[in-house]
Write a structure and sequence with these properties.
The complex is a heterodimer of chains A (104) and B (167). Chain A has 104 residues and is of the alpha+beta class. Helix content of chain A is 26%, strand content 24%. In chain A, the strands form two sheets. A three-stranded antiparallel sheet of chain A has the order 1-2-3, with no helix packed on it. Chain A has a two-stranded antiparallel sheet with strand order 4-5. Chain B has 167 residues and is an all-beta fold. In chain B, 51% of the residues are buried. The chains are: A alpha+beta (104), B mainly beta (167).
Amino acid sequence: MKSLRDHEGYLIIDHSQTEGVPDEVVVKLGLPAGSGKGVFETATFTCSHCQTVVIINPDRKRERTYCRGCNHLLCDPCGAERALTGVCRTFEQKIDLFLTSKGD
Amino acid sequence: MGARYSYSFTTVTTAAIANATNLTNSAYPGFLQGGSSTQRLNIIEVFMGGEASASSAPQIMILARDSTVAVTAISGGFVALLDGSGTAPATTAVVGNSATTTPQRSSTLHLLHLSFNAYGGIVRWVSRQGEEPSVVGNTASLGEVSLSATTGTTAGTLSGHILYEVA
């Protein structure tokens, strides 16, 4: 049986041999606090509506947007748009439109 | 599955460059551009290892679509087919980190943010098969993706690779 975890990628940031990066830098980039120290491993997913790679914060409590149209998790901006419009428009569909316009 | 390639870069000393500003030739890891108006590339993996000699060299690296694509005299980096017995497609991707018209990172279309200390730090991101961000065509903004350091980065040396598939 397929699960959403089948869509996950993998990220490792290894600072085991160095002082790392302070929280003020990594948090500003959307990475979890503490991810700039030691060895940080986490899953990622690619938003199916915009292809942004979302680094999953293991400590996040807020629910992520799940799109039933494409059976994928969405990034927060695309999740907000999905909630407002109710429309599922995947990046693959946008690519198809682009390629059709190019006559491919 | 299409032909898979490694674009690798060695001892690149990064420069902090803001969005929508010309990237400085040879001061960023590189860009991937479609080899034709309809070619599609899938980005499979990004790896960087720091080689800075100073103890604090935070790198704020962004993989992003480019609002201006590279044109003319494109060079830099190394490209190798991953499968030693593979056959290259008729049209291959355009890659490098130097050009006459230099790329500009989009202000909004950022795909992946990676931060690490180039003084011995390592970062590796791998996509799940079928979930890869893509490059389509060879014009802005879908047709080129760059990996570069943004404002706040302290110059540091790094090497690494981007694995991609010509779909």
